[in-house]
């Protein structure tokens, strides 16, 4: 299965997002109907396929997808999550081809413990998000939550570390991005692994 | 699969409850033969389909279901759990269309740590049970356990926070409800997620 | 599938034990090739089907079973584990129809923390092993490990609480029994749940 | 399925490694694209089949494998991980027929807590790696991480306890070996179980 997003139509994108969602749901990272995923279908104008709101993320079908514009407004399909606007903003800001938003216990727990950001260094796993394994300190930013996606987007833009394709939203969850749905998945798995490690409390 | 309960007959309800039970069992929330699920089939008179007692909750068939009345007594089918009476009471009290009772480690652990109730606020996940994500403090009540379902029902009625579709029974587990089996599932996943978060000990 | 053991032949018993083993292996309770399961096929003389030694417990076939006598010696089939002798002793001592031996992290961790035995009371989950949910204190015994099955059996016999169908072997794992493979499974799930609860450190 | 490696051709080896990888990935031990597995196909000259770099370890096909020599350089197939050189060195040094490298949270957490090595004794589970269950103290070595496989190999050679088929690489993960892919799997499961036990903090 290619995840070269530029060649996907909306239903193909829906199939990819449904499969990715089912995977994350099986990890317990999309409990209830939480979280949403997106993939960029065109750059100019910016168009993203975003998972439809209110569904069980382990039971999505290829049709449970909405086409949204650069403001996250629906172009076709059902009702997007309000958070679609943040997906579009992340895609525009970072050039990402896919965005993952999940609610993991570890991300919210670490956001509480380290509200100023989670400092990471000297971990081989950092290579999984493109950061050297030795001698480089990066910060996984923690930003305050908001229901206003413009405010949340401003905070993300101000806080992000360009070396890290992820941000923790305090009391909320995790935004992670990558070139493709598969790379975004791998980045998500890596960031969550790093958070689970920090949650053991064995760091300095 | 529609979970519009008003149109389900008893065997269809049994099939829905068997699928929901298998899901919760796969999470480890129904170890042994613990827990039980119900769905309201009629309001007047109140009739609920409740999972049969004593079975492995990962192996239920559509026939492993009992029709009970407003007191939890069997109208047809096999032997209901004594707890069927509490399911019926929750349905009558709250107007819920489905009730989930599971034994999770986190709910009993938190009931020990916070016997006066578990205070929650400023968490996006609260939206999954209909509570605002900001500035509202709700309490997930913890009530003392009893083998007398009238006593337990009285405690639940006295303690419940109308904004929270769930109660922790100390030393026992979790009761959660919703409009339909699917909504009750989502509420259960959300409440358990909140409990697992609090169990990390990272809160204030 | 009936688990009325008295009617099973050796291969049927092997099929039941393979299925039960695969279940426990999926929980991570039989890592490596650890643990073994048995079912009583006759009482007089005592004959048990025991899982064969050295196999991956997630990959057993119905043929991976050995018929042993009251001393745990092979009557037919392959090589039994040395621990088959303890299975036979538990079956003779308690009248159990099935014995489960698993290596769970929680049982070894709790055996370290509470070497004198794990005291349990006022937990609804205790009903899953036949103990009242209120006002009765039982002890899950912890016995010292040994490679001599006679010594280990003597310790088990001396330490066991007749109200609890389980014993923790320190630095080793858990022995649990029941009337049938299914009841032994449920007892195992219940005891492990209780140990995981105690491991949270929220008790008195 | 035989895992007698000497009779496997490269594609058969790829099929075995894909199945083993999918298993470890399902445990969460190969998040992102982390980790790699190998099996020795010939001793003289030393040739190993190693999983290809950059793939999702839950989605490997039999073709996602590279044949490497004693230096870890590709003889045929795609691009090997740089770590293939360490696999080859472990195989040459220990005589192992298969090597597993996984990134587990427990191994990195314990490497932080016990940078001088993890001392283990009096645990039945030690028998799963060939160490007596009583009275023998072994050390699971923790070595500093490096991107230079010669340096890392020197550290592994200097630090290893010949009684333990495993080494923790600090800030990185776990190397484990065995006679065959299946034995290496069992050794990995046993070592990870021991690490998860130590992570509970219940030891002396």
From TrEMBL, chains A, B, C, D:
Catalytic activity of the protein: 5-(methylsulfanyl)-D-ribulose 1-phosphate = 5-methylsulfanyl-2,3-dioxopentyl phosphate + H2O
GO molecular function: methylthioribulose 1-phosphate dehydratase activity; zinc ion binding
Cofactor note: Binds 1 zinc ion per subunit.
An example Gene Ontology biological process: L-methionine salvage from methylthioadenosine
Functional pathway: Amino-acid biosynthesis; L-methionine biosynthesis via salvage pathway; L-methionine from S-methyl-5-thio-alpha-D-ribose 1-phosphate: step 2/6
Assigned EC number: 4.2.1.109
Listed cofactors: Zn(2+)
Class II aldolase/adducin N-terminal domain location: 15-199
Record keywords: Amino-acid biosynthesis, Lyase, Metal-binding, Methionine biosynthesis, Zinc
Pfam families: Aldolase_II
Role played: Catalyzes the dehydration of methylthioribulose-1-phosphate (MTRu-1-P) into 2,3-diketo-5-methylthiopentyl-1-phosphate (DK-MTP-1-P).
Entry's family note: Belongs to the aldolase class II family. MtnB subfamily.
Name of this protein: Methylthioribulose-1-phosphate dehydratase
Species whose genome carries this gene: Streptomyces dioscori
Top-level taxonomy: Bacteria, Bacillati, Actinomycetota, Actinomycetes, Kitasatosporales
């Amino acid at each position: 299965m290619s995840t070269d997003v530029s060649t996907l139509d909306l239903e193909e994108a829906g199939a990819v997002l449904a499969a990715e969602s089912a995977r994350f749901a099986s990890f317990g990272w999309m409990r209830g109907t939480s979280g949403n995923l997106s993939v960029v279908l065109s750059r100019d104008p910016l168009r993203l396929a975003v998972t439809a709101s209110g569904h069980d993320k382990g039971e999505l079908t290829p049709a449970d997808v909405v086409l949204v514009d650069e403001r996250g407004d629906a172009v076709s399909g059902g009702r997007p999550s309000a958070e679609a606007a943040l997906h579009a903003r992340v895609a525009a800001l970072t050039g990402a081809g896919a965005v993952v938003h999940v609610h993991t216990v570890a991300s919210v727990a670490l956001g509480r413990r380290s509200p100023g950001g989670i400092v990471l260094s000297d971990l081989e796993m950092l290579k999984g998000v493109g950061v050297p394994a030795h001698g480089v300190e990066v910060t996984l930013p923690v930003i305050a939550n908001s229901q206003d996606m413009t405010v949340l987007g401003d905070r993300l833009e101000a806080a992000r570390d360009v070396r890290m394709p992820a941000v923790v939203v305090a009391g909320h969850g995790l935004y992670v991005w990558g070139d493709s749905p598969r790379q975004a998945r791998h980045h998500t798995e890596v960031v969550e692994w790093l958070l689970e490690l920090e949650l053991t409390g064995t760091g300095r």
